[in-house]
């Protein structure tokens, strides 16, 4: 059987590369960079008279902590990922510290708070692992503590970051986004009216929106439940969540937006430019950057809730059928909530979706290395994301007046990015389908590569 001259010979699978895992040096650099970033945010917070992440973390240890769903999720992940013999002593330490702190508060006649025990138990376990443990057990304990610590620290940094957007960015670009969003049919107004007429759905999606980290914890359970004995997988949802949360907020300073319920509704009483959301879509075609009350964070573009929900969906689709169904449910509810409660415009969601796929492309299948398809997809996603921001800012009126053209371009970019990600994440499936479609004359079993040159026609 002949092989066409332009038919590529079989290549070695990309996955057969040496398994290069991060060592102590790489993790040391991660810690150094993270500490430096926290200190930089602390300095910025002090410049604006705000309480920075260092002071907030100090409260978590010795002050009045905030429990929160992120701290609960971090605690659950730490317990799940650490070796079994440490779990009950760890939980017992948390309970003991909580009793001591709250007994003091009770005797002083102040409100009870919970969360100090988690911080002291994590710190104590990390010190014990560095001092007493060795080998794989030490690695497992430190990774378990590290996951919880990173989630808690990033949540504190994120809270301060949002306060910084309020103080440093008095002017917002909501007019531009609202006008451009008309190309998509003003979906926030449509969904806002729908959920107001269906209160049960509003209640459901609000809960999902509020407890987004719980959805990630469910997926993480399926991915990491055997990590204490079998080691961590090369790619898991915690990595995705942290990277999205680390990069996404930077865009808030480049494109400050508060959301339709704030700029065009009554989320902050008396602050709206027009109190029309979700009943009446504004008609002005003269967008401007305008001052908005500094009581609302500028955290809409891109929609990180959409990005995180996309990450939950992508990781869930790699799991069992029940987890797949859960991922789809969480994704649909989150998308509905971002629009229905007026937190985001439709373009925010498209940008958040492309943003998540771009970062997931960089993270998925690390064993394949930085091959050409991955790099091209990342570059394409970054370009599409930047194009959406620029078009929204400078072409909002033409977008609103373009009929279906702008909508097709926006949704087409999202679809193209989804397909490109699929080809990176599932190379075997995509190449198999492509081979089946391109040429039915390709042999089912290719000849030995060494013999191929003399067999060519």
TrEMBL record:
PANTHER family: PA-PHOSPHATASE RELATED-FAMILY PROTEIN DDB_G0268928, PTHR31310. Residues 184-357 form the Inositolphosphotransferase Aur1/Ipt1 domain. It holds the Pfam family PAP2_3. Its main location: membrane. GO terms for cellular component: membrane. The keyword Metal-binding does not apply. Residues 27-162 form the DUF5933 domain. Keywords: Membrane, Transmembrane, Transmembrane helix. The chain crosses the membrane at residues 27-50, 113-131, 140-162, 200-224, 236-255, 328-355, 375-396, 402-422. It is found in: Membrane. This is Phosphatase PAP2 family protein. It comes from Tsukamurella strandjordii. It is a multi-pass membrane protein. InterPro entries: Aur1/Ipt1, DUF5933, IPC_Synthase-Related. The keyword Transmembrane helix applies.
């Amino acid at each position: 059987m002949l092989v066409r001259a332009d038919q590529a010979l079989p290549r070695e699978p990309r996955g057969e590369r040496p398994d290069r895992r991060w060592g102590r040096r790489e993790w040391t650099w991660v810690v150094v960079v993270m500490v430096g970033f926290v200190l930089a945010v602390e300095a910025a917070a002090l410049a604006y008279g705000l309480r920075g992440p260092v002071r907030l973390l100090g409260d978590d240890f010795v002050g009045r902590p905030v429990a929160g769903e992120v701290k609960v999720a971090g605690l659950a992940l730490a317990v799940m990922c650490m070796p079994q013999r440490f779990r009950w002593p760890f939980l017992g330490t948390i309970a003991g510290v909580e009793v001591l702190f709250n007994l003091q508060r009770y005797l002083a006649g102040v409100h009870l708070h919970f969360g100090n025990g988690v911080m002291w138990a994590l710190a104590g376990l990390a010190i014990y692992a560095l001092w007493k443990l060795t080998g794989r057990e030490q690695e497992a304990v430190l990774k378990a503590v590290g996951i919880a610590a990173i989630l808690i620290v990033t949540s504190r940094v994120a809270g301060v970051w949002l306060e910084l957007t309020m103080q440093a960015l008095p002017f917002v670009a909501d007019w531009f986004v609202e006008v451009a969003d008309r190309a998509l049919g003003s979906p926030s107004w449509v969904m806002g009216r729908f959920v107001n007429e269906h209160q049960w759905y509003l209640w459901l999606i609000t809960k999902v929106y509020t407890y987004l980290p719980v959805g990630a914890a469910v997926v993480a359970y399926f991915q990491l439940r055997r990590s204490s004995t079998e080691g961590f997988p090369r790619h898991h949802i915690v990595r995705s969540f942290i990277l999205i949360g680390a990069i996404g907020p930077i865009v808030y300073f480049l494109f400050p937006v508060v959301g339709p319920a704030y700029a065009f509704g009554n989320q902050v009483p008396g602050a709206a430019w027009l109190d029309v959301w979700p009943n009446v879509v504004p008609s002005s075609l003269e967008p401007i950057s305008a001052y908005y009350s500094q009581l609302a964070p500028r955290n809409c573009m891109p929609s990180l809730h959409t990005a995180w929900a996309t990450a939950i969906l992508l990781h869930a689709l790699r799991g069992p059928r029940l987890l797949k169904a859960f991922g789809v449910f969480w994704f649909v509810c989150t998308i509905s909530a971002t629009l229905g409660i007026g937190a985001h415009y439709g373009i925010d969601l498209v940008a958040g979706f492309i943003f998540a796929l771009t970062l997931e492309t960089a993270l998925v299948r690390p064993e394949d290395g930085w091959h050409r398809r991955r790099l091209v997809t990342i570059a394409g996603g970054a370009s599409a994301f930047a194009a959406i921001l620029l078009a929204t800012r400078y072409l909002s009126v033409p977008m609103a007046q373009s009929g279906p053209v702008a909508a097709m371009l926006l949704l087409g970019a999202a679809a193209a990015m989804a397909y490109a990600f699929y080809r990176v994440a599932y190379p075997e499936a995509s190449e198999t389908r492509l081979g089946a479609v391109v040429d039915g004359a390709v042999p089912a079993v290719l000849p030995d590569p060494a013999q191929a040159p003399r067999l060519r026609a």
